[in-house]
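thread: overnight batch results

M.L. [08:02]
morning all. the overnight job finished for the chain we discussed friday. pasting input first so we're all looking at the same thing
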Amino acid sequence: MTRLTRASAGIGSAPPVRIAHLGLGAFHRSHQAWYTARTAPDWGIAAFTGRTPAAAVPLQEQDGLFTLVERGPQVDSAEIIGSLSRAHDGRDMSALAKVVAAPETALVTLTITEAGYALDPVALAADRRTLATADPTAPAPSTALGRLAWALDARRRADAGPLTVVPCDNLPSNGSVLRAALLALAADAPDLADYIHSTVSAVSTSVDRITPAVTDADRADAEGLTGFEDHAAVVAEPFRDWTLAGEFPAGRPRWEDAGARFVDDITPYERRKLWMLNGAHTILAAAGPLRGHATVSAAMADDAVRALVEGFWDEAALQLPADLDVHAYREALAARFLNPRVEHRLAQIARDGEIKVRARILPVLRREREAGRDGAGCLAALAAWADRLGGETEPLLASLHDDIAPLTDDVDALRTRARRN
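M.L. [08:03]
and the structure it wrote out:
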Protein backbone atom coordinates (compact mmCIF):
# COMPACT_ATOMS: atom_id res chain seq x y z
CA MET A 1 0.00 0.00 0.00
CA THR A 2 1.27 3.49 -0.88
CA ARG A 3 2.06 5.82 2.02
CA LEU A 4 0.10 9.08 1.97
CA THR A 5 2.26 12.03 0.88
CA ARG A 6 1.64 15.07 -1.29
CA ALA A 7 3.46 13.40 -4.17
CA SER A 8 1.60 10.09 -3.92
CA ALA A 9 -1.78 11.83 -3.56
CA GLY A 10 -1.12 14.27 -6.38
CA ILE A 11 -1.59 17.23 -4.05
CA GLY A 12 0.47 20.36 -4.59
CA SER A 13 2.96 21.90 -2.23
CA ALA A 14 1.96 22.90 1.28
CA PRO A 15 0.24 26.28 1.60
CA PRO A 16 2.20 29.19 3.12
CA VAL A 17 1.97 29.30 6.90
CA ARG A 18 -0.40 31.93 8.27
CA ILE A 19 -1.62 30.10 11.39
CA ALA A 20 0.34 28.65 14.31
CA HIS A 21 -1.41 25.97 16.35
CA LEU A 22 -0.54 24.66 19.82
CA GLY A 23 -1.80 21.20 20.77
CA LEU A 24 -1.53 18.96 17.73
CA GLY A 25 -4.17 16.32 18.41
CA ALA A 26 -7.09 14.61 16.72
CA PHE A 27 -9.64 17.29 17.59
CA HIS A 28 -7.62 20.07 15.99
CA ARG A 29 -7.32 18.02 12.82
CA SER A 30 -11.03 17.19 12.67
CA HIS A 31 -12.13 20.74 13.47
CA GLN A 32 -9.97 23.84 12.87
CA ALA A 33 -7.80 22.15 10.23
CA TRP A 34 -10.95 20.95 8.42
CA TYR A 35 -12.57 24.40 8.46
CA THR A 36 -9.36 25.96 7.15
CA ALA A 37 -8.92 23.36 4.41
CA ARG A 38 -12.50 23.92 3.26
CA THR A 39 -12.35 27.71 3.15
CA ALA A 40 -8.76 28.97 2.87
CA PRO A 41 -6.41 26.93 0.68
CA ASP A 42 -3.74 29.65 1.01
CA TRP A 43 -3.77 29.62 4.83
CA GLY A 44 -1.33 26.96 5.98
CA ILE A 45 -1.01 25.80 9.59
CA ALA A 46 2.23 25.13 11.45
CA ALA A 47 1.14 22.86 14.30
CA PHE A 48 3.07 22.10 17.50
CA THR A 49 2.47 19.07 19.69
CA GLY A 50 1.36 19.32 23.31
CA ARG A 51 1.95 16.63 25.93
CA THR A 52 3.89 14.28 23.66
CA PRO A 53 5.88 14.90 20.48
CA ALA A 54 4.70 11.62 18.93
CA ALA A 55 1.82 13.14 16.95
CA ALA A 56 4.21 15.18 14.80
CA VAL A 57 6.22 12.22 13.49
CA PRO A 58 3.74 10.63 11.05
CA LEU A 59 2.56 14.03 9.89
CA GLN A 60 6.13 15.06 9.13
CA GLU A 61 6.56 11.86 7.10
CA GLN A 62 3.28 12.58 5.24
CA ASP A 63 4.00 16.24 4.38
CA GLY A 64 1.28 17.31 6.83
CA LEU A 65 -1.46 15.32 5.06
CA PHE A 66 -3.95 13.17 6.92
CA THR A 67 -7.23 11.40 6.26
CA LEU A 68 -10.38 12.56 8.01
CA VAL A 69 -12.98 9.77 8.19
CA GLU A 70 -16.52 10.97 8.88
CA ARG A 71 -18.38 8.15 10.59
CA GLY A 72 -22.11 8.37 10.09
CA PRO A 73 -24.75 6.06 11.55
CA GLN A 74 -24.66 3.85 8.43
CA VAL A 75 -21.64 4.65 6.24
CA ASP A 76 -18.23 6.33 6.30
CA SER A 77 -16.75 8.92 4.00
CA ALA A 78 -13.14 10.08 3.80
CA GLU A 79 -11.36 13.29 2.88
CA ILE A 80 -7.63 14.04 2.67
CA ILE A 81 -6.89 17.30 4.51
CA GLY A 82 -4.00 19.45 3.33
CA SER A 83 -4.12 22.55 5.53
CA LEU A 84 -1.27 21.42 7.81
CA SER A 85 1.88 22.79 6.23
CA ARG A 86 4.25 21.68 8.97
CA ALA A 87 4.17 19.62 12.15
CA HIS A 88 6.64 20.29 14.96
CA ASP A 89 7.63 18.90 18.32
CA GLY A 90 6.12 21.34 20.81
CA ARG A 91 9.48 21.62 22.55
CA ASP A 92 11.06 23.18 19.45
CA MET A 93 10.99 26.74 20.76
CA SER A 94 13.14 28.07 17.92
CA ALA A 95 10.57 26.92 15.35
CA LEU A 96 7.66 28.23 17.43
CA ALA A 97 9.26 31.66 17.83
CA LYS A 98 10.07 31.82 14.13
CA VAL A 99 6.49 30.97 13.10
CA VAL A 100 4.77 33.30 15.59
CA ALA A 101 7.18 36.17 14.86
CA ALA A 102 6.70 35.96 11.10
CA PRO A 103 4.74 38.96 9.73
CA GLU A 104 2.66 36.59 7.59
CA THR A 105 1.32 34.78 10.67
CA ALA A 106 -2.06 36.23 11.62
CA LEU A 107 -3.44 33.70 14.11
CA VAL A 108 -2.47 31.34 16.89
CA THR A 109 -5.07 28.68 17.67
CA LEU A 110 -4.94 26.40 20.70
CA THR A 111 -6.30 23.00 21.75
CA ILE A 112 -4.39 22.38 24.99
CA THR A 113 -7.36 21.00 27.03
CA GLU A 114 -8.99 22.76 29.97
CA ALA A 115 -6.09 21.78 32.23
CA GLY A 116 -3.67 23.77 30.09
CA TYR A 117 -5.15 27.06 31.30
CA ALA A 118 -4.92 26.22 35.02
CA LEU A 119 -1.41 27.42 35.83
CA ASP A 120 -0.26 26.15 39.21
CA PRO A 121 1.67 28.71 41.30
CA VAL A 122 5.04 26.97 40.94
CA ALA A 123 4.84 26.74 37.14
CA LEU A 124 3.50 30.28 36.90
CA ALA A 125 6.34 31.68 39.00
CA ALA A 126 8.98 29.77 37.03
CA ASP A 127 7.63 30.87 33.65
CA ARG A 128 7.28 34.47 34.85
CA ARG A 129 10.97 34.48 35.80
CA THR A 130 11.91 33.07 32.40
CA LEU A 131 9.85 35.68 30.55
CA ALA A 132 11.21 38.50 32.74
CA THR A 133 14.80 37.76 31.69
CA ALA A 134 13.98 38.55 28.02
CA ASP A 135 16.86 36.19 27.19
CA PRO A 136 16.08 34.11 24.09
CA THR A 137 18.79 31.61 25.10
CA ALA A 138 17.21 30.96 28.53
CA PRO A 139 15.50 27.60 29.19
CA ALA A 140 12.06 27.41 27.61
CA PRO A 141 8.96 27.93 29.73
CA SER A 142 7.44 24.73 31.10
CA THR A 143 3.77 25.34 30.25
CA ALA A 144 1.95 25.65 26.92
CA LEU A 145 0.82 29.19 27.73
CA GLY A 146 4.30 30.09 28.91
CA ARG A 147 5.67 28.95 25.55
CA LEU A 148 3.00 31.00 23.77
CA ALA A 149 3.93 34.10 25.79
CA TRP A 150 7.61 33.47 25.00
CA ALA A 151 6.77 33.29 21.27
CA LEU A 152 4.64 36.44 21.51
CA ASP A 153 7.65 38.22 22.98
CA ALA A 154 9.66 37.12 19.92
CA ARG A 155 6.95 38.69 17.73
CA ARG A 156 7.09 41.89 19.80
CA ARG A 157 10.85 42.11 19.35
CA ALA A 158 10.44 41.52 15.59
CA ASP A 159 7.83 44.31 15.40
CA ALA A 160 5.70 41.95 13.29
CA GLY A 161 2.37 43.64 13.98
CA PRO A 162 -0.92 42.57 15.55
CA LEU A 163 -1.96 38.96 16.12
CA THR A 164 -5.08 37.09 17.19
CA VAL A 165 -5.06 34.15 19.62
CA VAL A 166 -7.99 31.74 19.31
CA PRO A 167 -8.44 29.20 22.15
CA CYS A 168 -10.55 26.20 21.11
CA ASP A 169 -10.92 24.46 24.48
CA ASN A 170 -14.06 23.90 26.54
CA LEU A 171 -13.83 26.77 29.02
CA PRO A 172 -16.36 29.55 29.62
CA SER A 173 -15.10 32.85 28.17
CA ASN A 174 -11.98 31.06 26.99
CA GLY A 175 -10.66 34.16 25.23
CA SER A 176 -10.80 36.18 28.44
CA VAL A 177 -9.27 33.30 30.40
CA LEU A 178 -6.41 33.04 27.91
CA ARG A 179 -5.79 36.78 27.91
CA ALA A 180 -5.71 36.92 31.71
CA ALA A 181 -3.29 33.98 31.86
CA LEU A 182 -0.93 35.58 29.33
CA LEU A 183 -0.93 38.85 31.26
CA ALA A 184 -0.24 36.99 34.51
CA LEU A 185 2.74 35.30 32.86
CA ALA A 186 4.00 38.69 31.63
CA ALA A 187 3.56 40.42 34.99
CA ASP A 188 7.32 40.84 35.43
CA ALA A 189 7.95 41.66 31.76
CA PRO A 190 6.34 45.09 31.26
CA ASP A 191 7.20 45.42 27.57
CA LEU A 192 5.55 42.07 26.83
CA ALA A 193 2.53 42.93 28.99
CA ASP A 194 2.09 46.23 27.12
CA TYR A 195 2.36 44.40 23.81
CA ILE A 196 -0.31 41.87 24.80
CA HIS A 197 -2.58 44.68 26.02
CA SER A 198 -2.25 46.77 22.90
CA THR A 199 -1.56 44.40 20.04
CA VAL A 200 -2.81 40.86 20.77
CA SER A 201 -6.53 40.12 20.33
CA ALA A 202 -8.05 37.15 22.19
CA VAL A 203 -11.15 35.64 20.57
CA SER A 204 -13.64 33.51 22.52
CA THR A 205 -14.96 30.36 20.90
CA SER A 206 -17.33 27.44 21.33
CA VAL A 207 -16.23 24.31 19.47
CA ASP A 208 -18.05 21.05 18.86
CA ARG A 209 -17.19 17.87 17.02
CA ILE A 210 -17.01 14.45 18.66
CA THR A 211 -13.58 13.07 17.80
CA PRO A 212 -12.74 9.77 19.51
CA ALA A 213 -9.24 8.42 19.91
CA VAL A 214 -8.21 6.63 16.73
CA THR A 215 -7.63 2.86 16.67
CA ASP A 216 -5.79 0.48 14.37
CA ALA A 217 -9.17 -0.51 12.94
CA ASP A 218 -9.89 3.14 12.15
CA ARG A 219 -6.57 3.46 10.32
CA ALA A 220 -7.42 0.34 8.33
CA ASP A 221 -10.79 1.85 7.43
CA ALA A 222 -9.10 5.05 6.26
CA GLU A 223 -6.75 3.01 4.09
CA GLY A 224 -9.67 1.11 2.58
CA LEU A 225 -11.50 4.33 1.73
CA THR A 226 -8.57 6.22 0.18
CA GLY A 227 -6.09 3.59 -0.92
CA PHE A 228 -3.32 5.25 1.10
CA GLU A 229 -1.53 4.03 4.20
CA ASP A 230 -2.04 6.82 6.74
CA HIS A 231 -0.49 6.74 10.22
CA ALA A 232 -2.15 10.04 11.19
CA ALA A 233 -5.77 9.32 10.24
CA VAL A 234 -8.58 10.87 12.32
CA VAL A 235 -12.17 9.72 12.80
CA ALA A 236 -15.01 12.10 13.69
CA GLU A 237 -18.77 12.33 13.55
CA PRO A 238 -20.28 14.20 10.57
CA PHE A 239 -21.56 17.02 12.82
CA ARG A 240 -19.37 20.04 13.50
CA ASP A 241 -19.95 23.50 14.96
CA TRP A 242 -17.81 26.56 15.64
CA THR A 243 -18.92 29.87 17.15
CA LEU A 244 -16.48 32.78 17.55
CA ALA A 245 -16.63 36.28 19.05
CA GLY A 246 -13.86 38.86 18.86
CA GLU A 247 -11.62 40.89 16.59
CA PHE A 248 -9.11 39.65 14.00
CA PRO A 249 -6.81 42.63 13.35
CA ALA A 250 -4.45 40.68 11.08
CA GLY A 251 -7.19 38.94 9.09
CA ARG A 252 -8.61 35.44 9.12
CA PRO A 253 -9.94 32.70 6.84
CA ARG A 254 -13.62 32.87 5.83
CA TRP A 255 -14.49 29.97 8.13
CA GLU A 256 -18.14 31.00 7.89
CA ASP A 257 -18.15 29.62 4.34
CA ALA A 258 -17.92 26.16 5.95
CA GLY A 259 -20.58 26.92 8.57
CA ALA A 260 -18.71 28.72 11.36
CA ARG A 261 -20.74 31.35 13.19
CA PHE A 262 -19.44 34.81 14.17
CA VAL A 263 -21.42 36.54 16.93
CA ASP A 264 -21.20 39.54 19.23
CA ASP A 265 -22.08 37.57 22.39
CA ILE A 266 -20.80 34.02 22.61
CA THR A 267 -22.07 33.32 26.12
CA PRO A 268 -25.39 31.60 25.22
CA TYR A 269 -23.69 29.36 22.66
CA GLU A 270 -20.83 28.32 24.90
CA ARG A 271 -23.19 27.60 27.78
CA ARG A 272 -25.44 25.48 25.59
CA LYS A 273 -22.51 23.42 24.37
CA LEU A 274 -20.57 23.29 27.64
CA TRP A 275 -23.56 22.30 29.76
CA MET A 276 -25.63 20.20 27.37
CA LEU A 277 -22.90 18.30 25.49
CA ASN A 278 -19.84 18.43 27.73
CA GLY A 279 -21.88 18.18 30.94
CA ALA A 280 -23.63 15.09 29.60
CA HIS A 281 -20.26 13.61 28.61
CA THR A 282 -19.01 14.09 32.17
CA ILE A 283 -22.08 12.28 33.52
CA LEU A 284 -21.77 9.44 31.00
CA ALA A 285 -18.06 9.05 31.84
CA ALA A 286 -18.94 8.81 35.54
CA ALA A 287 -22.00 6.54 35.46
CA GLY A 288 -21.28 4.44 32.37
CA PRO A 289 -18.25 2.45 33.58
CA LEU A 290 -20.04 1.60 36.84
CA ARG A 291 -22.63 -0.25 34.73
CA GLY A 292 -20.05 -1.95 32.53
CA HIS A 293 -20.03 0.47 29.60
CA ALA A 294 -16.90 1.68 27.83
CA THR A 295 -18.33 4.01 25.16
CA VAL A 296 -20.69 6.96 24.98
CA SER A 297 -23.16 5.12 22.76
CA ALA A 298 -23.37 2.12 25.09
CA ALA A 299 -23.82 4.30 28.18
CA MET A 300 -26.46 6.49 26.53
CA ALA A 301 -28.41 3.38 25.48
CA ASP A 302 -28.66 2.32 29.16
CA ASP A 303 -31.96 3.68 30.52
CA ALA A 304 -30.53 4.26 34.02
CA VAL A 305 -27.58 6.25 32.73
CA ARG A 306 -29.68 8.16 30.23
CA ALA A 307 -32.06 9.16 33.03
CA LEU A 308 -29.15 10.91 34.77
CA VAL A 309 -28.33 12.78 31.57
CA GLU A 310 -31.96 13.72 30.93
CA GLY A 311 -32.40 14.95 34.50
CA PHE A 312 -29.37 17.21 34.15
CA TRP A 313 -30.54 18.39 30.73
CA ASP A 314 -33.92 19.35 32.17
CA GLU A 315 -32.19 21.74 34.55
CA ALA A 316 -29.59 23.06 32.09
CA ALA A 317 -32.33 23.84 29.55
CA LEU A 318 -34.03 26.13 32.07
CA GLN A 319 -30.89 28.29 32.15
CA LEU A 320 -30.65 28.82 28.37
CA PRO A 321 -32.52 31.35 26.19
CA ALA A 322 -35.48 30.02 24.20
CA ASP A 323 -34.20 31.39 20.89
CA LEU A 324 -31.36 28.84 20.90
CA ASP A 325 -33.93 26.07 20.21
CA VAL A 326 -32.60 23.98 23.06
CA HIS A 327 -35.17 21.22 22.51
CA ALA A 328 -33.92 20.54 18.97
CA TYR A 329 -30.29 20.77 20.13
CA ARG A 330 -31.01 18.27 22.89
CA GLU A 331 -32.67 15.79 20.51
CA ALA A 332 -29.75 16.09 18.10
CA LEU A 333 -27.29 15.46 20.95
CA ALA A 334 -29.08 12.28 21.97
CA ALA A 335 -28.93 11.01 18.38
CA ARG A 336 -25.23 11.86 18.16
CA PHE A 337 -24.48 10.10 21.44
CA LEU A 338 -26.37 6.97 20.34
CA ASN A 339 -24.41 6.60 17.10
CA PRO A 340 -22.73 3.22 17.77
CA ARG A 341 -20.25 3.67 14.94
CA VAL A 342 -18.53 6.58 16.71
CA GLU A 343 -16.57 4.74 19.38
CA HIS A 344 -16.05 7.59 21.84
CA ARG A 345 -14.33 5.99 24.84
CA LEU A 346 -15.50 7.06 28.28
CA ALA A 347 -11.98 6.74 29.67
CA GLN A 348 -10.86 9.46 27.23
CA ILE A 349 -13.62 11.80 28.45
CA ALA A 350 -13.04 11.13 32.17
CA ARG A 351 -9.63 12.85 32.34
CA ASP A 352 -9.31 16.03 34.43
CA GLY A 353 -12.64 15.32 36.13
CA GLU A 354 -12.37 18.01 38.81
CA ILE A 355 -11.89 20.79 36.26
CA LYS A 356 -14.73 19.49 34.10
CA VAL A 357 -17.22 19.16 36.98
CA ARG A 358 -16.43 22.70 38.09
CA ALA A 359 -17.04 24.11 34.59
CA ARG A 360 -19.91 21.91 33.42
CA ILE A 361 -22.08 20.83 36.38
CA LEU A 362 -21.67 23.36 39.18
CA PRO A 363 -22.75 26.46 37.18
CA VAL A 364 -26.11 24.83 36.47
CA LEU A 365 -26.51 23.80 40.11
CA ARG A 366 -25.69 27.35 41.21
CA ARG A 367 -28.36 28.81 38.94
CA GLU A 368 -30.94 26.23 39.97
CA ARG A 369 -30.40 27.10 43.64
CA GLU A 370 -30.59 30.82 42.88
CA ALA A 371 -33.95 30.18 41.18
CA GLY A 372 -35.26 28.47 44.32
CA ARG A 373 -35.10 24.92 42.95
CA ASP A 374 -33.25 21.99 44.50
CA GLY A 375 -31.03 21.08 41.54
CA ALA A 376 -31.78 17.39 41.96
CA GLY A 377 -30.49 16.56 38.47
CA CYS A 378 -27.16 18.24 39.18
CA LEU A 379 -26.87 16.55 42.56
CA ALA A 380 -27.54 13.16 40.96
CA ALA A 381 -24.74 13.91 38.49
CA LEU A 382 -22.38 14.82 41.32
CA ALA A 383 -23.28 11.63 43.17
CA ALA A 384 -22.54 9.54 40.07
CA TRP A 385 -19.21 11.31 39.74
CA ALA A 386 -18.47 10.58 43.40
CA ASP A 387 -19.27 6.90 42.93
CA ARG A 388 -17.05 6.70 39.85
CA LEU A 389 -14.01 8.09 41.65
CA GLY A 390 -14.36 5.79 44.63
CA GLY A 391 -11.40 6.13 46.97
CA GLU A 392 -10.13 9.23 45.18
CA THR A 393 -13.31 11.14 45.85
CA GLU A 394 -12.49 12.46 49.31
CA PRO A 395 -9.56 14.71 48.32
CA LEU A 396 -11.29 15.83 45.13
CA LEU A 397 -14.49 16.69 46.96
CA ALA A 398 -12.38 18.58 49.46
CA SER A 399 -10.87 20.60 46.61
CA LEU A 400 -14.39 21.41 45.37
CA HIS A 401 -15.83 22.07 48.83
CA ASP A 402 -15.77 25.87 48.54
CA ASP A 403 -17.70 25.63 45.27
CA ILE A 404 -20.25 23.07 46.41
CA ALA A 405 -20.86 24.07 50.04
CA PRO A 406 -22.73 27.32 49.30
CA LEU A 407 -25.04 25.43 46.95
CA THR A 408 -26.06 22.33 48.85
CA ASP A 409 -26.20 20.70 52.25
CA ASP A 410 -25.29 17.36 50.68
CA VAL A 411 -21.48 17.59 50.61
CA ASP A 412 -21.21 15.37 53.67
CA ALA A 413 -23.62 12.88 52.11
CA LEU A 414 -21.46 12.76 49.01
CA ARG A 415 -18.37 12.19 51.15
CA THR A 416 -20.10 9.43 53.12
CA ARG A 417 -21.11 7.77 49.90
CA ALA A 418 -17.52 7.92 48.62
CA ARG A 419 -16.12 6.39 51.81
CA ARG A 420 -18.54 3.46 51.52
CA ASN A 421 -17.30 2.61 48.00
